[in-house]
Amino acid sequence: QVQLVESGGGLVQAGGSLRLSCAASGRALYTYTMAWFRQPPGKARELAAADFWAGSGPYYADSVKGRFTISRDNAKNTLDLQMSSLKPEDTAVYYCAAGRGSSALSAAYTYWGQGTQVTVSS
């Protein structure tokens, strides 16, 4: 079992920055693909960024590429998402997730955090 707890969400103005953190317990993260999904109001959950366990390099959705940076610290068992140049359309609940393989589909991830709200005002 893996327990994931997100922190760092909040309200920020457009153009601002936020850093989300995910703390994991139960198992070491380095054996898992770790990802940040997000669910905007009234929309489906989507993959924002992922760090695939196979070491193929980070993945970013086109909508966040160049603005978001995913990073993990295997020693601390944490996963971060640095978000810059935030836009109102980045408003969503952000979820940390862990799973096996390399997939953009939420169904492929076994463990989920409770989510943290990010609101970007215009």
| Unreliable runs | none
Tally of helical segments = 0
What structural category arises from helix and sheet content?
A: mainly beta
Q: What would the principal axes of the Cα set say about the shape?
A: globular
- Mean of residue pLDDT values: 94
First CA to last CA: what distance? 40 Å
* Count of individual beta strands: 11
Radius of gyration based on Cα positions: 13 Å
In terms of DSSP E residues, the strand content is over 45%
Helix content: under 10%
Q: What is the ordering of alpha helices and beta strands?
A: EEEEEEEEEEE
Largest beta-sheet details? 7 strands, mixed
Which properties best describe this structure?
globular
Please give a structural write-up.
With 122 residues, this protein is mainly beta. The protein is built from no helices and 11 strands. The chain has strands at 3-7, 10-13, 18-25, 33-39, 46-51, 58-60, 68-73, 78-83, 92-99, 109-112, 116-121. Strands 2, 4, 5, 6, 9, 10 and 11 form a 7-stranded mixed sheet that branches. The radius of gyration is 13 Å and the shape is globular. The model has no long low-confidence stretch (mean pLDDT 94).
Short description:
This protein has strands at 3-7, 10-13, 18-25, 33-39, 46-51, 58-60, 68-73, 78-83, 92-99, 109-112, 116-121. With 122 residues, it is mainly β.
How would you summarize the topology of this molecule?
Layout: E1 3-7, E2 10-13, E3 18-25, E4 33-39, E5 46-51, E6 58-60, E7 68-73, E8 78-83, E9 92-99, E10 109-112, E11 116-121
